[in-house]
Write a structure and sequence with these properties.
InterPro entries: Cyt_c_oxase-like_su1_sf (IPR036927), Cyt_C_Oxase_1 (IPR000883), NorB_cytochrome_c-like (IPR054309). It holds the Pfam family COX1. By secondary structure, the chain is mostly helical. It contains 25 helices and six strands. β1 and β2 form a beta hairpin.
């Protein structure tokens, strides 16, 4: 127990230091965020744009879910343009045309190379100068900049009104309603002002600095946006930190034997019984698993619809974009993956609760039913709200019941709060079994393992509270700071920690590993995961108007994140040993096949592909391209998706009658695992990675804005790769359908609920 105390103390200090750095960096972010002037005026003092119009444009961007179509400051979706980069390019074109007409009475494109170079130099010098006056809270625009704003306004009127060239979106999608957080006036013009503000802050030097508010992102030579020296320096240093970190971690890992030690005779363990009685609340979790698989299938079908929009604007000639436009499909695609993964874990936690206590807490089944229907209401209600907001049926209170406007936080505020309440109800359900079990002092090691599991569970709803800090009129830098607490810290940090703890618990529950070695291994993994991951999320703060200190912190710590993820390859190998060496009657082969897959994709998807795109020197050009998409799919599906399937298979094996698990069913699970791995590998390495390479090459040659145009995907090679993606997509879908059929059939072979369940084995070694 002294060893546990030292490890516990170390973990607490790591968390205190990591979160202190993160929060201190947050204060620097808010202190140094780009100003949102009360007015943008011309040189004579005439008002061009007011702050109210600027914030109204932000509300339009959020209400119509454009973050799930294009991106802003590189954050969002990768199909549509990055509106910051595109606006910067078009705005500069307007300025260049202004000077061409003023000096030579002709269009800029008709000038000689020498004359064009002169104008480019003048425009570049002009936009770099920061004319914001903090005393008056006004931004002064030159006559040429005003011309650039007018040119940009004309551009977006053409894009969004009557003849949108935005593939996968309906015509006239943006209505002229004056809804919450909006002002009277033309909504497309106000949206343009929001885009222009992003172009301004990304190309204007910070006060007393030689780089912009976004550290000179996006790459655009006409704007003078080139990678800063700090980005290159910290990329090199991050590699050195990684090498040193690998050496240190391997030293401690080997010296103190921080790995799970298998029971010596695990290959010859007695026949594992799965015919034990189940309680009422355990039986009720089966319907959660069926809903999970249904959401999983719908989610990937929406992904295939989005892939189709890359090829043509409609769906095989059907104008489906008027019912499910790309931005709505992407919204549901993201929300469903969070819902079904979270639901799988919630249901598994509910199943485990009577198992750890050895009896059913009173009225537990009623609470489980309440949670189930609350889940149905939140999923269905939020999706309908997002559909209504995006298509313009929900106008007033759109931010409460409709689309909230931020990627991975699309649910309206009402649904976010209900979701949080539901997760805390889940914690209450688990505490009713875990607290009495922890208090039993017969096996202190087991109590410590349960403590880790329940603390990891509590962290899931606790960190989602960050979503409540974001409002529709929040500064984008402030909003994205907290949004990444949800995307990276919640999904990639807390989820990852809960996953490794749950894996450890399952290994002990199945009597495969010793409990002492498992707890030590879990502490070591948590120290590494959270010690690197909390600050490592700073690589998301490079280019969104944050303090440049994140180039150092984000680069180094995100490089270190690779180490614990790659260590999980060894864990995957040990899982494979169990699967391979276990005797014929071992009932968890399906679970272990997906656990092996989880470990491999942790190293490949989260580790290798994450390291590939997180270094500042690469991320500067790659940010928001298909390499990011490859990392996201490999991590979310390969890690959290496969892990969720593994724990559901473990639970459903105990919930169903033993005669259901025939050799044929086991074979179909094996084929589901194979097809899902092959499909995901094909999607990532055959299509997304080559597309990302071509996109990165295009950004280097023509500027980032050019690589994000829809025209990029309509080129022959790029179009062919996009079409080819349908093959691995179909293979992956086949695996999901197999699992859905298995879980559906399992519903007809559930054991009857019993008032008595097997007592807890407290003599775990």
């Amino acid at each position: 127990m002294q060893v546990y105390k030292r490890l516990n103390r170390t973990l607490l200090w790591v968390l205190v230091i990591a979160f202190s750095i993160l929060i201190a960096g947050g204060f620097l972010i808010f202190k140094n965020e780009a100003p949102r002037p009360s007015k943008m005026v011309d040189e004579s003092g005439t008002t061009i744009v007011t702050k109210k119009q600027l914030l109204s444009g932000q509300a339009v961007y959020e209400k119509y879910g454009l973050t799930d179509y294009g991106s802003y400051l590189g954050n969002g979706t990768y199909f549509g343009p990055d509106y910051t980069a595109q606006s910067l390019h078009v705005y500069i074109q307007g300025m260049q045309n202004y000077y061409a007409q003023k000096q030579y009475k002709t269009n800029f494109k008709d000038l000689s190379v020498e004359k064009q170079s002169g104008i480019k130099g003048r425009v570049k010098h002009e936009i770099r100068k920061n004319r914001y006056n903090s005393k008056t809270d006004q931004l002064v625009l030159t006559t040429a900049q005003v011309a650039g704003v007018n040119h940009l306004t004309k551009h977006y009127r053409h894009e969004f009104r009557n003849n949108p060239h935005e593939a996968g979106l309906p015509e006239n999608m943006i209505h002229n309603n004056t809804d919450d957080f909006m002002q009277n006036g033309d909504k497309i013009d106000q949206l343009t002002y929001f885009f222009f503000w992003g172009a301004w802050l990304s190309s204007t030097n910070r006060p007393h600095q030689t780089y912009s508010y976004t550290n000179n992102w996006p790459y655009d030579l006409d704007a003078g946006n080139i990678m800063t020296s700090e980005a290159m320096v910290w990329t090199a240093l991050s590699v050195a930190v990684l090498v040193a970190g690998v050496g240190v971690v391997i030293y401690f890992y080997k010296k103190y034997h921080f790995d799970m030690q298998f029971n010596e005779s695990y290959a010859d363990i007695p026949e594992i019984r799965t015919d034990e009685p189940i309680s009422n609340s355990q039986r009720k979790t089966a319907k959660f698993f069926l809903i999970v698989m249904m959401m999983f299938l719908v989610q990937i079908l929406l992904g295939e619809l989005m892939s189709h929009y890359y090829v043509e604007d409609t769906f095989f000639g059907l104008p489906l974009q008027y019912i499910w436009p790309f931005n709505l499909a992407k919204t549901w695609h993201l929300q469903l993956v969070i819902f079904w993964i979270a639901t799988a874990w919630l249901a598994t936690g509910i199943y485990i609760t009577p198992r750890v206590l050895g009896r059913e807490p009173k009225r537990q089944g009623i609470l489980v039913d309440i949670l189930f229907w609350a889940l149905i209401i939140v999923v269905g209600g939020s999706m309908l709200g997002e559909w209504g907001s995006t298509l313009g049926f929900i106008n007033g209170k759109w931010w409460i019941f409709g689309h909230y406007g931020w990627e991975y936080a699309e649910m309206g505020k009402f649904w976010q709060i209900l979701f949080i309440i539901g997760m805390f109800l889940w914690i209450f359900i688990m505490l009713r079994g875990f607290v009495p079990a922890i208090k039993i002092k017969k096996n202190l090691h087991r109590s410590r393992l349960l403590q880790l599991l329940i603390i990891g569970s509590i962290a899931i709803p606790a960190f989602y509270l960050a979503s409540l800090f974001i409002l529709p009129n929040s500064h984008v830098t402030f909003a994205d700071y907290w949004r990444w607490w949800i995307v990276h810290l919640w999904v990639e940090g807390i989820f990852e920690s809960f996953a490794v703890i749950l894996i450890g618990y399952l290994m002990v529950d199945m009597k495969l590993t010793t409990i002492k070695s498992t707890i030590r291994a879990l502490y070591f993994q948590l120290i590494l995961l959270l010690g690197t991951g909390v600050v490592g999320m700073g690589h998301h703060y490079f280019w969104e108007g944050d303090h440049s200190i994140w180039l150092a912190l984000g680069a180094c710590f995100s490089a270190l994140e690779v180490i614990p993820l790659c260590l999980l390859v060894w864990e995957a190998y040990t899982h494979y040993r169990v699967y391979k060496d276990s005797h014929k009657g071992f009932p968890y082969k399906g679970t272990f096949m997906f656990l092996v897959s989880t470990g491999l994709w942790n190293a490949l998807g989260a580790g290798a592909l994450g390291f590939l795109i997180n270094a500042p020197a690469i991320n500067y050009f790659e940010h928001g391209t298909q390499w990011t998409s490859a990392h996201a799919h490999a991590s979310m599906a390969g890690v959290y998706g496969f892990f969720s399937v593994a724990i559901m298979l473990f639970a459903i094996r105990h919930l169903t009658e033993t005669n259901f698990w025939t050799t044929k069913v086991e074979k179909w699970i094996k084929w589901a695992c194979i097809t899902m791995n092959v499909g995901l590998a094909g999607m990532v390495f055959v299509t997304l990675m080559p597309l990302g390479y071509l996109q990165l090459k295009d950004a280097l040659e023509n500027g980032y804005w050019h690589a994000r145009q829809i025209s990029f995907y309509r080129q022959p090679l790029e179009n062919g790769l996009t079409i080819a993606r349908s093959v691995p997509d179909i293979i992956f879908t086949a695996g999901v359908v197999i699992l859905l059929v298995i879980f559906f059939r399992a519903m007809f072979h559930l054991k009857k609920a019993s008032k008595e369940i097997n007592p807890v084995d407290y003599d775990i070694k």
